[in-house]
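thought: user wants a sequence for this fold. calling inverse folding tool.
action: design(structure=
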């Protein structure tokens, strides 16, 4: 409440759960490997300084192999 008695309206917060997009459908993305499921993975930079965090992206995963969605 404000001092004049008027209720303050707070903006809604938007909660991000993952990388900001929905997981891909990984049908027929892993070849014959089963099960093929969506997974979030961190991208590490190939060249340059070490970062404190790495961006995350969606990939299709089967066993220990990753495939592009």
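)
observation: tool returned 69 residues.
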């Amino acid at each position: 409440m404000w001092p004049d008695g008027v209720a303050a309206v707070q903006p809604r917060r938007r909660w991000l759960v993952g990388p900001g997009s929905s997981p891909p459908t990984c049908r027929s993305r892993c070849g014959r490997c089963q099960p093929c499921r969506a997974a979030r993975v961190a991208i590490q930079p190939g060249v340059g300084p070490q970062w404190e965090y790495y961006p995350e992206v969606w990939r299709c995963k089967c066993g220990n192999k990753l495939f592009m969605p």
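thought: summarizing for user.
answer: Here is the designed sequence. The mean pLDDT is 77.
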